[in-house]
Amino acid sequence: MGKFTDKLHFNRTAITFYDTANTTLYDLGHEYPPPPHLYTILPLSCFANFSQAKELIYKIKEGLPRGTFIGAIGVDLNLDFTVEPPFLFSLSQKKVSEQYVNLNNTTGELHTSATEIDRETLCPDNAEGQGCVLSLDVFVLPQQYFQLIKVKILIEDVNDNRPKFPVDEICMSVPENTPVNARYAVEQSAVDPDLGVHGVQTYWLVNDFGVFTLDVEENEGGELTPFLIVTEALDRETQAEYITDIIAEDGGTPPLLGAATLKIVITDVNDNCPQFTESQINVTLHGNATKGAHLARLHAFDPDLGANAQISYAYSERVPRDTRSLFHLDRITGVIKLAGKINTVTATFYKLTALANGPGCIPAVATVTFHIIKVVTGPPAVIPRYIAPEKDGVVTIKESEPAFSPIAFFTVKNIDMNQRVDCYLEGTGPFRLGPYQLFKNEYLLETTEPLDYEKIQEYELIVVAKNTQGLVIKTFLKVQVLDENDNAPVFQQSLLEISVEENNPPNTFLTQLQASDQDSESRGEVIYLLGGDAPGIFVVDRVTGVLTVATSLDREEKETYRFIVRAVDQGTPRRESIATVVVSVQDRNDNSPRFINKDFTFFVPENFPGYGEIGVLSVTDADAGENGWVALSILNGSDIFMIDTGRGALRAKTSLDREQQGTYQLWIEAIDGGEPTLSCVTMVTVLLLDVNDNPPIVLFPQSNQSYMLVLPNTLPGTSITEVYAVDKDTGMNAVIAYSIIKRKGGEPGSFAIDPETGNITLKRELSNRGLYSLLVKVSDHGQPEPLYSTVMVNFFVNETVSNESYIQSLLTREADIEIEERPWYTGQMTEGPERYELFPCQPVLIALSVTCLGLFFLVVTLTSYICCKRFKKHRKKRSEVEIPLKMKDDSMQVVNRKLRQISNI
After folding, report:
1. Residue 379 DSSP class
2. What is the pLDDT of residues 756-774, one digit of tens each?
3. Which CATH number do you get for residue 316?
4. pLDDT tens column, 303-362
5. Is residue 366 part of a domain?
6. In what residue span(s) does the Cadherin domain sit (predicted)?
7. Distance of CA 403 to the CA centre of its chain
8. For residue 605, what are the contacts with CB-CB under 8 A and spacing of at least 6?
9. What SS3 class is residue 638?
10. Taking the model in full, what pTM does it have?
């Protein structure tokens, strides 16, 4: 394969050719636009000589939608698509290939199919540094062009997997005597199937309790292992375990998180020794006490746990063997019972040293003193009979038992007839001992109020029987309160108000619910649940109480979410409490202002007063606060128009004239007050409606002094001339009507004018020569009041015009007199002023004509002055050339034809 001397330029897409013979790499390009959604499409191998083409390589990212362009095989191979028969492209393994890509059989273009490519599924064993490749075999057909093209599609990783811990709860044991800065590896590290920076990058704790921190180490293989570091001294007796969440975070943008519950159990070490609750115990014993009588109970406590807290009781070696035999000490319970018969003759006092032994500890020491009282007669005996469950002198009673629940009966025996025995109770607590009804020497022990395990779990009572001789018999009794699920969990806050900005990333942390339960064991274990009114987008961790929102929130869709959360214990029956969560979505400037209409059109009559309201532009912004404040401005035409931002009212600074400009197009911009600001633009069209403010303008004849020569033999029905006028208004305001309002000369009805065209026609034969004048009114059809102009149309009836100056003098003189309804000349007409015969009442007619014409011209002059000021520019454009009426017939026809053309325009 030879080297290339020319390069084709690509648009962002590079194609690389390999020279298999010379192992030379060539880069070519073409003007093929890059496909959307692809950061890089890099066919790494293509060919200048098609017959040697072997392999094409493209690069795409995983998870692209259906129809995304991958590459054009035919274009990249530089094929000539004009050949016949045309090229065809085919996949050799359609079932496998078409699962992910679609191939255009005629163009060779590759697109993604409906099945999104998941790199982790396609290449499950793909490691760092290894590419995930989708290989295709493409046939180029028909047979005369046949070629096998190897296509490789490199699938690039995107951050579409969040880190995941192998277990939901990681349990670690840390001894309480662990030194500060000791490190413990968290073996159950998170796994992220994504590669590179999209994999796990760091770990962190939601709550370190001020005694832990987390460090991350990387081994030679690049794997990260989190290490738990102890930063403060631990004490199991203060806190036995710590529960928090460990978070694994990847390096994507935005990063994805994975969480697991981290339970740190503080294991016990034997750092405490037993201690007696009472180091001095005095017991009074009657000499006639029966064997097996309960005398006393030793009680020692070790705050350690398990085997480290096991206590055994024993007498000191200094206690004589026979004494130890007489007073039996139970090594487990610490109960001392009488094991033999007391010899009251030789012994009246015993002092015993008792030890409480713990593993690896120096024994605690207590002294038990027995005082022996000699009894001449048989001493009274107190016989207990238990109603509540009892074992080894320990009575158990549920805290749910009501007040005055019976515990035991005590019967006093061996009482002489002349003796009186008092029986009473020693010890504190809600108990009482009293005679039972009318039975003698029967006493009932009962509660006086309900017991509460959460306040006191255990009571030690002594039933004392004392006779009149001072003999005292004591019976020891221990009452243990059994816990029941009588406490519901209690939230630290009954109302949780949370603020979160809209457009938040999915799975955003909102808060951690915290509730406590005073009950013991599983009855005090709390799980967290959402109430039935909670939207499905909120998620709470049952164990940790971490509340998250699964989706992105939109304040414009909903601004406040209010729902119930429940804290439920594990007792029987279960108890629960509720709290109210109020999530307020804070606004962000994510909505542009929006006009109610795409564009606006306002119709305004011309001469509308300045600063009058033309129309109102309604604009809205879905955001709140400053983000929803909208200001309007005019992008063009601000020298003529202004806009009232408060109401959105459009106004014109001056009165507008349709004859100067009939349509205005404005671009109005609406800008909100957010940061950054958002805006939108709309087009406003202002159409001026015509007002009848222009009278018709007579273009022909152009002067009241103009005249036309009319032959005396002109036949009736002949069109003599026409009056032509225009009106600058539109519509009915510009529709013109012509009428003859006065005449001078000729008989009534001699002339007629077409009201629509202004064409003047001779209706009767002209028998008299001389000057005829018609006053023509040119009026429009405007509303509410039509406007009009007048023009004088003069005819000189004769065969020729030999003395034009005389006719002009007549026109000048006649302009000042009122025109009558009949001709002013009835005699024979010849050329010369001496041949004219004036009317006999000429002075009177002249005076009346002058008066009427004066008033008429005054009105016309005022009207013309007002119109001229408004249309001064247009008047300058009007032709100043006056067309005289004295023309030959052929010249008049030419002029009439030109004026009709103007009229048609």
Report:
1. P
2. 888 999 888 887 788 888 8
3. 2.60.40.60
4. 888 888 889 999 988 888 888 888 999 999 999 999 888 776 566 788 899 999 988 888
5. yes
6. 52-165, 173-276, 277-382, 389-491, 492-595, 596-698, 702-825
7. 58
8. 688, 689, 691
9. coil
10. 0.39
